[in-house]
Amino acid sequence: LEPYVNQPISASTLRQYIFFGRQMNNKRLAKSANWVRNELLVRLAHRIRDFQQLPFFVGTNPHIKYIYGLYWAAFEKLRKSPQIKTMEDNQGFCTLLRQLLEEGRRVIPQMALGVSECASYYADDQQDLDRFVNRMFRSRISRRVLTEQHLALTEACENDWDESMGFGDGYIGIIFTRCSARAIVGKARKLLDIQAATKFYSHYHGKLPPPSEWKPPAVEIELQPAAGSSGNSNEIIFAYIPEQLEQILYEILSNSVRFTMANHPPHAYPPVRVTVSVNETDVFFRVSDQGGGIPKTRFDRLWSYQARAPDGEFLHFEDVQKMPSNISERLEQNTTDGPMHLGMGLPLSRVYAEYWGGELQIMTMDGYGTDAYVRIPRLG
């Protein structure tokens, strides 16, 4: 472990991923595979060391120990995997990566349950557990980006997509260089309309199915292009990993729709308004609702896993074995027998937003409604 703990983690930007991913060939793909292998080992080693430095009462918690075991197993599998020299070697490496991705879907539910059982051991003014969890989640995002990007580049290279289309589909690995603000918000809205009808309506209004004339709260989208822009005023285009932004906006919109339905009769929902603006460096999203706002007692601990866990807010994770990989899987989970709300969505969304140098802020008027602000860099 020590040789990898002593290595610094190599931070990378979206711009760097895009630059390297262009004109992929077998030689560059093998180079990518070996770099990804080493980076995963380094990042896992740092997190394993974090586990080893936890207080005894946390480190021996069964859920925390389970994650620790997952990380050690992943580290050993990667350490014992051979250097990638040929495309056959890369195929074997990709098989391992897919296995590790699947196993990693168990981390967040186990972490949530572990935090629920350990938070009471910490003083109210301590933030050690919050810092530990945020480091774990940020590192998890980084490893998934490395893994999924290499898998996507491998698939593109094997199918000669770069040569046949010249990146005509807009994708370089998992990065989409033509992300549409309207399309991403629209996708989240479409999935939430389904969830509102199948899950929220019966929860808040006590009837299922809703009457045929019923409609969920409208999500209105307004785009504000950059000043002086000569492009399409009805569209804002930028490069990003769409699944990450979809997760952020889906979570925010889900909260807005849920609390709008909870605080208004089914025939008189006020709309949820989404405003998108852009400048040379960033894209901004504002989601405004009239869902009743957030009480101060809750708002003060909104971002703290540690403060919220003793109230049992994360215990719904007992019914979740694996986290969904995208919002479509999230919808499927929520509209079947899964819990309607897990409680970690906003803190996780903030980790996603901050990962590429963006931010997520919440402003609320208790008794009226809430505004959520998301800023993402156009090339993180």
Features:
five-stranded mixed beta sheet; alpha+beta; Heat Shock Protein 90; Butyryl-CoA Dehydrogenase, subunit A, domain 3; ATP-binding; 380 residues
How do the strands and helices of this protein lay out in sequence?
Blueprint: H1 2-5, H2 14-21, H3 26-52, H4 56-59, H5 62-80, H6 87-104, H7 107-118, H8 128-158, H9 161-165, E1 171-172, E2 175-180, H10 181-205, E3 219-224, E4 237-240, H11 242-263, E5 272-278, E6 282-288, H12 296-299, H13 305-308, H14 327-335, H15 345-355, E7 359-365, E8 369-377
EC number: 2.7.11.-
Subcellular location: Mitochondrion matrix
Keywords: ATP-binding, Kinase, Mitochondrion, Nucleotide-binding, Transferase
Named CATH architecture of the largest domain: 2-Layer Sandwich
The SS-based structural class is: alpha+beta
End-to-end span in angstroms? 31 Å
Strand order of the largest sheet: 3-5-6-8-7
Give the C-alpha Rg.
22 Å
**Regarding quaternary structure, how should these chains be classified?**
single chain
Helical residue percent? Answer: 40-55%
Q: Enumerate the spans where pLDDT stays under 50 for 5 or more consecutive residues.
A: none
Average the pLDDT over all residues and give the rounded result: 90
- What profile does the largest beta sheet have? 5 strands, mixed
Order of helices and strands: HHHHHHHHHEEHEEHEEHHHHEE
Q: What overall form do the CA principal axes indicate?
A: globular
Reading off the top of the CATH hierarchy, the class of the largest domain is best stated as Alpha Beta
Number of helices: 15
For the secondary structure, the number of strands is: 8
User: Into which percentage range does the β-strand content fall?
Assistant: 5-15%
